Backbone:
């Protein structure tokens, strides 16, 4: 399938977890491995889907709150144990969503610059991209701990655009969560919300410019964005 970008869109920035890859199973496995060690009940897929998107510390904090509350000595130890396990098992079960790799390849072939703006930390983001053969598509990758701020802070998006040499009025943002769409809105970028990710709010409440159920629909969504 040949992709023809609208003239007004020359760059596309993607989120990672819940947008390009389904990473829930590996995240859940890492949480439950640590929780087994500390005597907490395992968390379910539905619970994890409602917890991811704001970085690892927030995921661990939410999981602890859901299973008995935060430890008296804080969450740092549990976060460290999570990362220690997850970094070695981040791609045991994770896979790109259907059509994700195709759309990245086709957008690059169409001349688009592709960036990644994720709240996932660098220590797990880059190994996942390499293992799933996605790294080569991105002109720039900005992670959740690359800077002192992250989505929905618009500076996370601005830094991504500046580093990849993209203009705000020529870039679309593709994400799956409220943090993504808030970040795009805060940064003044048109946004596309994928409906198959890890959103915590009603999809139609997020003020995305377009919604897609599969990456096959992204061309049409970008046409909608270019006309707004």
Residues:
């Amino acid at each position: 399938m040949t992709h023809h970008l609208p003239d007004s869109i020359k760059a596309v920035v993607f989120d990672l977890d819940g947008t390009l890859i389904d990473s829930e199973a590996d995240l859940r496995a890492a949480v439950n491995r640590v929780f087994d060690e500390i005597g907490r009940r395992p968390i379910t897929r539905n619970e994890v889907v409602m917890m991811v998107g704001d970085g690892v510390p927030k995921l661990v904090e939410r999981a602890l709150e859901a299973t008995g509350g935060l430890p008296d000595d804080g969450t740092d130890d549990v976060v460290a144990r999570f990362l220690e396990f997850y970094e070695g098992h981040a791609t045991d079960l994770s896979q790109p969503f259907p059509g994700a790799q195709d759309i990245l390849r086709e957008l690059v072939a169409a001349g688009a610059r592709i960036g990644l703006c994720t709240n996932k930390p660098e220590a797990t983001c880059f190994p996942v991209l390499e293992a799933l053969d996605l790294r080569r598509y991105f002109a720039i990758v900005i992670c959740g701990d690359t800077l002192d701020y992250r989505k929905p802070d618009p500076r996370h998006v601005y830094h991504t655009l500046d580093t990849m040499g993209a203009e705000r009025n020529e870039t679309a943002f593709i994400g799956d969560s409220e943090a993504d769409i808030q970040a795009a809105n805060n940064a003044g970028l048109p946004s596309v919300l994928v409906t198959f990710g890890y959103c915590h709010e009603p999809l139609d409440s997020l003020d995305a410019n377009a919604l897609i159920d599969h990456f096959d629909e992204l061309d049409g969504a970008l046409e909608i964005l270019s006309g707004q």
User: Anything to note?
Assistant: The chain has nine helices and eight strands. The first helix runs from residue 24 to 38. The first strand starts at residue 11 and ends at 14. The mean pLDDT is 94.
